[in-house]
User: Fold this.
Amino acid sequence: MKNSFGTSVTLTLFGESHGPMLGAVLDGLAPGLELDEGFIARQLGLRRPAGRISTARREADEFQIVSGLFEGHTTGTPLTILIPNADARSRDYAATRALPRPGHADYTAYMKYHGFEDYRGGGHFSGRVTAALVAAGAVCIQALRTRGIWIGTHVARCAGIADRDFGADWKADFALLENEAFAVLDPAAGEAMRTAIEAAARDGDSVGGVLETAVLGLPAGVGEPWFDTLEGLLAHGLFSIPAVKGVEFGAGFGLSELRGSAANDAFFMDGDTVRTRTNHNGGINGGISNGMPLLYRCAVKPTPSIYKTQQTVDMLRGTDAELSLRGRHDPAIVHRARVVVDSVSALVLCDALALRYGTDWLARQEAEGRR
Amino acid sequence: MKNSFGTSVTLTLFGESHGPMLGAVLDGLAPGLELDEGFIARQLGLRRPAGRISTARREADEFQIVSGLFEGHTTGTPLTILIPNADARSRDYAATRALPRPGHADYTAYMKYHGFEDYRGGGHFSGRVTAALVAAGAVCIQALRTRGIWIGTHVARCAGIADRDFGADWKADFALLENEAFAVLDPAAGEAMRTAIEAAARDGDSVGGVLETAVLGLPAGVGEPWFDTLEGLLAHGLFSIPAVKGVEFGAGFGLSELRGSAANDAFFMDGDTVRTRTNHNGGINGGISNGMPLLYRCAVKPTPSIYKTQQTVDMLRGTDAELSLRGRHDPAIVHRARVVVDSVSALVLCDALALRYGTDWLARQEAEGRR
Amino acid sequence: MKNSFGTSVTLTLFGESHGPMLGAVLDGLAPGLELDEGFIARQLGLRRPAGRISTARREADEFQIVSGLFEGHTTGTPLTILIPNADARSRDYAATRALPRPGHADYTAYMKYHGFEDYRGGGHFSGRVTAALVAAGAVCIQALRTRGIWIGTHVARCAGIADRDFGADWKADFALLENEAFAVLDPAAGEAMRTAIEAAARDGDSVGGVLETAVLGLPAGVGEPWFDTLEGLLAHGLFSIPAVKGVEFGAGFGLSELRGSAANDAFFMDGDTVRTRTNHNGGINGGISNGMPLLYRCAVKPTPSIYKTQQTVDMLRGTDAELSLRGRHDPAIVHRARVVVDSVSALVLCDALALRYGTDWLARQEAEGRR
Amino acid sequence: MKNSFGTSVTLTLFGESHGPMLGAVLDGLAPGLELDEGFIARQLGLRRPAGRISTARREADEFQIVSGLFEGHTTGTPLTILIPNADARSRDYAATRALPRPGHADYTAYMKYHGFEDYRGGGHFSGRVTAALVAAGAVCIQALRTRGIWIGTHVARCAGIADRDFGADWKADFALLENEAFAVLDPAAGEAMRTAIEAAARDGDSVGGVLETAVLGLPAGVGEPWFDTLEGLLAHGLFSIPAVKGVEFGAGFGLSELRGSAANDAFFMDGDTVRTRTNHNGGINGGISNGMPLLYRCAVKPTPSIYKTQQTVDMLRGTDAELSLRGRHDPAIVHRARVVVDSVSALVLCDALALRYGTDWLARQEAEGRR
Assistant:
């Protein structure tokens, strides 16, 4: 499916950067989930550009839930969230219509849609569309939490600077990240990263980074042996996030450098529970969750919109050309992409769990007392 | 879908390592493709364990096409390939039934299937199932070649040793790989890798590696902006391959270390064609092919089956236990996984192309003169 | 998929009868289709209750296209249509919350959603949701017409009164139906039907009917042999329409009474074209279009909302109960369902054609001259 | 999906009438279902041509389960059933290759597959493929029975002769049908039908009929409000059955003749259970099961293969032509299609139930005691 994802729980995205609004339709979620709209607003806030290291574009991100919510609970029918586009300055883009921006989707959109695409501000390819994804993801995250499943993502690397790894006390680490616009576990690393981002911004340039995600509380036995492996499903979703160019699970590419005796995760009994002493496989064996935390990383490329003059082509004239971007652009988006990773992860897991345990599972406790 | 993949061109896999046979049903492929069964046999040969660095299990991999082929051409109806299991020694596995092998799917299969899974030799999770995938992939590869689309994969890293990169002359490089069981571009690197694999084997251990794939000839404009991005579709398929724990496109994780000015691929006119001077984005912008070669890498973990004694649990007794594997195991599978990567890639691309251009596109020339 | 339909061209519906709005997301449609919004408005007008034989609820059906349309043409990205709910009187429904209406979805919605459903006016089950379906269908109908494919539906039976069959001059018959709120081929039959509907209304009762649809211009060779037969796809969509309880193709149930020699449609050459002398199979053999007009009928049950006192249960008390409906209800919806049948048909055919011929096919001519 | 059906439980069909074998891959079924292979054989026996009113082709229908079954129980991984084609006389068909049979898929297959289709005996379109469907359906039927869900179908009409309706004692009626090759509730009606079939056979002609199905024990709350309504899902599957040209639920087309006061099914309390006094809606309201028996009918057209001379075209010469069929053909298939209807119904319901209640639900009791 083109702009939809999922089998039992599905998400459909629509909207363009400079159209009247963006939106998401989330279908198949259990009825009876009590929804905290404030949490959706906070998640949108974490995605929103803010402060000295972000685009000057201001997005209020007011959202409206127009279906699927009744008396504060999900109904089980499609839940639709609309997000109006308030501050879209179309005039910034028209001048460079014929000049595809390097690293962006301008050229490929043209080749796919034959010039009929809404090119303004990236149109349907804009990172702005992730606002709708984050709003829907915030619903999924709430659904998972009712079942004791928690997702946390931090900026593990940015501009060559590394954050510390997740520690043994996951809950404490997740609490650190919960409402932090620049989510790192080590504040000093975060400060160094922001300084590096500012340096890039002064150069009219941008930086990328790596996001690391952990999922706690996922039951063992979720995922499929072929094709719909948990890794395949998560990666499918994560590569939708603009700028993600790599996904690895557990030790990932590093695992390929180890010998088997070092790579294998030994099992042991922890009381009645089977656990592994290491987690090089990121909580997934044979495509299926093993009850250990999921652990994976996304490589986020540097923002392609930079102020330095770049080489491109003039699509109308068929000649080489130079491009100098104006407008408002982020020198880094890795920290803003964090909440998008959480959202996609939550969507994928809600879907896998609903398939495994049935459509009511994610809100079962709440659903049982009704009427 | 659980053991199926694809939207317009779909593949369904079935079979267990120690059952009577494996199989694949490939549906939706264009009618009228003239099939070279010898090519299927050669691809199976490249996957088959052979020589001093592979398991002693001998698989003849005789295959039979039982539907969808008529008078040497695909019919357009489901094409089914069966591969009998000849040399399966079930007695090797029964003794360790209760002891899940670290790094394998034994434990997760048990948690998913409640002990009803066919556990012998990994059952449906066995790498042996990739034989069916390779046979079907060989059909897809032939379909792509009729349209001038070529896929090549080499062992880019193994046991810490690097092969050289693809050169400017893709065709020459692809020719080097075509029938090579241990596919490297630099023979000296290949020899060093094999030596390292043998060293690991002598230690009762195993090694992993990285596979790098290039796709030439793919038209620009294939893929979708959200969810069904070309990266997402390929990664979804590639993570199905047992032991793949990371996938990156273009410069991938390395891209996250660059600044935007270095990461962006500048456009230029090459005659009438728009091309990019570098290819850090791996031929994909905004999820859609840009006409440059696709380039991506898969991290392959070391074979989990090793002869060293490992820590595990006894599922029947609920106690810690030790496991000493016997049987026949590969000290490395990265070179054998190469042809599986090609096969998955071909399947994903056939599907994306059929969706874009219609079901007949992949064999259109041949189909036109019939009757 | 729950509230979505289609593989290459997909439609997702959302909204409840008494929520702020309804909507439809239409994805996968070819870029470059020039859209006539007036046609959408006219189609909505045909669905809208009007005149002496309809509910007194007045729906302006103002709609807004909020994505996927740029400079008057489809972009190829998701096209979203919103329809606000203006005149919803929720107070009519609250009193009878615990009393499921016979023939309605009140009881089954409760069993599925555990009482969390928005029960007001049928909520997401309301026929009102078909307004979104009709708006999206109007886009699909326009796409088909650019390829010379036309759909026409008439009220073949209502309250025991039969309209005449389609005649040899399809175009003339389709022109009769195009903007007719009560679509019949024989005006006298239509007048008799309306009189019968009024009689039922005076009794506080309702009537049903049969809709007959013809599709002209569909190429031969569309559909699949198993499961995604053209009949199966169309029926799947058509049974979504509230009140449709039967679907038959060609002579349908009547065909089961014939002998083979009478039922088979003899082929003959009509110039260079293969045609059949009769069309008992409704233009479909083996699940695939044969180039003759598609012909099918939908049975529409009488509106379940009637003013006569009915037996039901009190869900809160667990006792038998009586129900006397108030509010505004149609004594017949068969004539209003006509345009819904056209819409579903258009959606199904756009999807089947896009799968067969590629995503650009439906607007190819227009797309070619762009930029 | 082309030759696949289902979302959580999926079936893929392959094979041609005159190829080496047919087959079915059933994926997603719960692990731990104890399988009675004798039941599969008996179901195949009910589909098999036999006796004086069937084709002389003899099909042993020996089947082999080659995956997904281990120690007598389903494993939860794809269950594959192969059925060899033993008695296929290809020479009967070659002579009339260029002459498409009226009422068959010969012509449409040619238009879809451009002449590359295996035309022998209908190839992939052959009713013979339903043997694979019946074998897989027999597995689904067993799964449903572990949950107390039973399906029964009888020949409600044939050659103008009506069987009696289902009575109040469903179990007794289902027992009558269980192993009956010509499934009627009234033996005298059955005898009259067979006599009429013989009369048609003597004329070189064929007859059709109507199959009526009841499903008992289905919980309320299964199905979706739009698109994946229970009616839509069942009809989608049922129209796959060759020769089915109409599907109606409950009173179906007859319902369209009633007034609402007669059509609505009044609710009442039957102890603690909500039931309806009549069942004109066939156990489905708003697309969702209401706990009453499902009731639906399929119109089966007369076998298109008849011995009378028919008008057709010569595809090679582009001229009109006459066709006189030889070979072995059924004067009626309605009684043989009965078990195909049961099989499709079981597949659709297993899928809907697995989606609703999770993948393990259909064999949960059995699965719990394992290991």
The first strand of chain B starts at residue 4 and ends at 5. Chain B has one domain: 4-368. The longest helix of chain B spans residues 334-357.
